[in-house]
Write a structure and sequence with these properties.
Blueprint (H helix, E strand, L loop, with lengths): L1 H6 L5 H44 L1 H7 L2 H11 L14
């Protein structure tokens, strides 16, 4: 659009050079920001996929897991921990 205005003599060459740099810089910044957002989105999708994979196989994971793995899995499901009520025999 800016080039078109230069061609039809609506703006001078000096104005074109002044504003084209401004717009090129703005486009570059927006492109970089968009790329960062896409990377974040990609990482989020990977995390969701991993979470779904764990959720689908949680019982099998528990059966085959070693002590430390079970501890991590338990913390993942119950981040505040579990409390056993001996009187009522409930968790």
């Amino acid at each position: 659009m800016l080039e078109e205005r230069l061609v039809i003599n609506e703006i001078s060459k000096e104005q074109y050079q002044k504003f084209s740099k401004k717009y090129i810089d703005a486009i570059r910044e927006l492109s970089e920001e968009l790329e960062q957002k896409q990377n974040m989105s990609s990482n989020l999708e990977k995390a969701i996929d991993k979470g779904l994979k764990i959720a689908k196989n949680i019982s099998q994971m528990w059966i085959t897991a070693k002590y430390l793995e079970k501890k991590k899995l338990q913390y993942l499901i119950f981040p505040d921990g579990m409390v056993y009520d001996k009187k009522n025999n409930t968790v």
